[in-house]
Amino acid sequence: MRLLRSTDLALRVLMRLAVEDGPTPTTREVANDMDVPYTHLAKVVAELQHLGLLVARRGRGGGLALTEKGRTASVGAVVRTFEGCGDVVECEGANPCPLNSACRLRGALRRAQEAFFATLDPLTVADMVAPPTGPLLLEIGRPGV
Ligand code: SF4
Asked: What does pTM read for this prediction?
């Protein structure tokens, strides 16, 4: 199963903010650190803010900060939110599969997808930044590194 780019970015932003120990970084600074397009990251940040997982303060001294809800957020919940609950294969749509009405594979794939999410459910953002990941994230965020 391949995650959407926005799902991976969402988790990376949360992890990056979870280790921040200096001034709150701006969306642009985080985008630069992560080497991703600003516009793409800004959409992800807006969604994370809407979910209450981070706050974005404007103006001087502003920037992005993780909330307690973001720190303790389930990785599985974040992935479910960004991936949605669609099928992993497109069975319907413009050219529906002829097996669509009686397909055992479709059910098996749904169960496999749920098992994938369930594996991530007990893990939190804070868990994901334990060493060695957290210290490396901090280094990457440092100017000149
Ligand atoms: S074979 Fe089954 S899972 Fe695959 S596209 Fe057709 S209905 Fe969906």
From this structure: 0.89
